[in-house]
Amino acid sequence: MAESISFTILRWRFMKSLYCFEIDDVSRYKPSRGDDSVCSAFAFPRPAHMFRLIILMALLAGLPAKAAPADTVAVAVAANFTEVMEALSEGFKERTGHSLRISFGSTGKLYAQIANGAPFDVFLAADQARPLRLEKEGLAVPGTRFTYAEGVLVLWSPDKTVVTGQPKKLLESAEFRHLAIANPDLAPYGRAAYETLKGLGLWSSLAPKLVRGQNIGQAFQFVATGNAELGFVALSQVMSPRNTAPGSRWEVPSPQHGPIQQDAVLLKRGDDNAAARAFLRFLRSPDSLRIIHAFGYRVSAD
Fold first, then answer.
1. Which range among 42-46, 186-190, 281-285 shows the weakest confidence by mean pLDDT?
2. Residue 158 DSSP SS3
3. Which candidate, 114, 119, 123, places its Cα nearest to that of 145?
4. Strands, DSSP E only, in the chain?
5. Where are the domains of the chain?
6. d(Cα 297, Cα 302) in Å, to the nearest integer?
7. DSSP H or E run through 243
8. Of 166, 210, 251, 295, which sits 20 to 30 A from 141 (CA to CA)?
9. Pairwise CA distance, residues 197 & 205, whole Å
10. Geometric angle at alpha carbon 297, from 281 and 209, rounded to 5°
């Protein structure tokens, strides 16, 4: 029988350059350096290297699991919330890695699109009625609806000399060509403007001078570009850093119209989208509420 019998049955893969004890004989052991990527047959790490290997494995086991891959959330957003949403979108991506695909428009038109199957995950309306309606119609996830902001209606002119003194007298005088409002049938701010004028007894008399935007963004543009001398717009638009002509304004008292409470809701399409739920949590965070308030909205931390 040969003096030694070599065993080469299995090869265990360890780290490169790991020193091993190699069994090359039934009766003796020979210390050997493993080849470029493995230790030889029936090879075992030296005790010191075994200890290092155990420590390495423990460290690897303690590492956090790999983060979930970034996802995209399709969000339908009321036009008055455009600039705030742009700011929030950047913060959300920095914090979570997820991206937002945002579509802006009037609340009424966005609701109609969702009802007709538009692929949105989240809806940020400028009212409470449409998110509630979607929930009742089975198009939104029950229990996810909440108020994320309350809008403030203002009568605004880029000219700082126009909206001064008593705004009712200014409106009664009708010494202007056009007064801009959002469409009351589509936009909550337009509805609030209608209720304000109706309460002042001026809706009928001023109707010929009204120019209606499809949403509050259009109404603001009518005034900003001079197509209307003044208009009922959102305070957030007037306070925007992009507005180079803060001019003069009258903040309409809350009792003059119904509250412009803006609700968000998770839509059925986004029910299984973890990023969509993460965005709604982010929207309620203290950092987000501070940003929303800074843009001219009332917020609640409740």
1. 42-46
2. coil
3. 123
4. 19-23, 29-33, 44-45, 72-78, 99-105, 122-124, 146-151, 153-157, 179-182, 210-213, 230-234, 248-251, 260-266
5. 1-63, 72-150+260-294, 153-251
6. 15
7. none
8. 295
9. 10
10. 130
Superfamily of the domain at 153-251: Periplasmic binding protein-like II (3.40.190.10)
The whole-number pLDDT of residue 69 equals 56
Q: Judge residue 65's burial from the number of C-beta atoms within 10 Å of its C-beta, 0-12 exposed, 13-18 middle, 19 or more buried.
A: exposed
CATH of domain 72-150+260-294: 3.40.190.10
Task: Decide whether 72-150+260-294 matches 153-251 in CATH topology.
Answer: yes
Name the pTM for this structure.
0.68
Which two tokens mark 140?
């939104």
What's the rounded Cα separation, in Å, for the pair 55 and 49? 10
Give the tokens for residue 111.
Answer: 């609701």
Give the tokens for residue 224: 């900003």
- With b for 16 or more beta-carbon neighbours within 10 A and e for fewer, the 1-30 pattern comes to eeeeeeeeeeeeebeeebbbbbbbeeeeee
Q: Look up residue 129 and give its two tokens.
A: 């009625």
